[in-house]
Amino acid sequence: MMDEYELQRFSAYFRGWCQAFGEHNSLPKGADGISWLLGEDQVGFILPQHMTKPLYREVLRTIEAPLLTLSNCSVRIGNMQIELAAFLDHPAMSAIKSVLESAADSHLYLTSHFMYGPGAKIITLSNKRPLSIIYKEIGHMRVRLIRD
Fold first, then answer.
1. What band does 5 get if pLDDT is binned at 50, 70 and 90?
2. What's the pLDDT band for 37 if we cut at 50, 70, 90?
3. Where are the beta strands (DSSP E) in the chain?
4. How far is CA 72 from the centre of its chain?
5. Residue pair 51/43 in contact by the 8 Å Cβ criterion
6. What percent of the chain has pLDDT over 70?
7. At 55, is the secondary structure helix, strand, or coil?
8. Rounded CA separation 110/32 (Å)
9. How many other CB atoms are there within 10 angstroms of residue 94's CB atom?
10. Do 143 and 1 touch, CB atoms closer than 8 A?
């Protein structure tokens, strides 16, 4: 079974600026090195440093965003693929589905949180629109969710 969704992408007006992720529960870092943050109406993740810049290039620094495909064993976006283990049963996937399937619009943008250090950026999927004083809309992105 496969579902497709559309979300709005946002980028900060100035490099390095972002709003705080806010109150959340964090999941322990898995073997893939990804840290997950689960908050009210939002889910975020922090990638290992070697994956961050390629993902930014694929998602936030392009006019036309590539398709994001989430499946049980991987996340694929453009030329980048991240292997995961049994992701469909992961609490983060449940949170992602909740955001995407909500009646409210879905948004993608970067946030930060003091607990993860000054350089850590959290890629955030949220039903809450980011602060318009910090972010500008840069386009849409399609998300495909494959449920095997």
1. very high
2. very high
3. 2-12, 19-20, 25-27, 35-39, 42-46, 68-70, 74-77, 80-83, 107-112, 122-126, 135-146
4. 16
5. no
6. 94
7. helix
8. 20
9. 12
10. no
Spatial neighbors of 48 by CB under 8 A, at least 6 apart, are: 33, 34
Token look-up 């109150």 returns 23
| Amino acid at position 41, single letter | D
Strand, coil or helix: 65: coil
Determine the average pLDDT of the residues in 91-116.
Answer: 91
Asked whether the beta carbons of 11 and 136 are under 8 A apart, the reply is: yes
Judge contact between 42 and 123, C-beta under 8 A: no
Q: Which of 130, 127, 123, 26 is nearest to 82 (CA)?
A: 123
Residue 124: both structure tokens together: 């955030």
**7 forms bridges with which residues in the sheet?**
141
State CA 121 to chain mean position distance.
Answer: 11
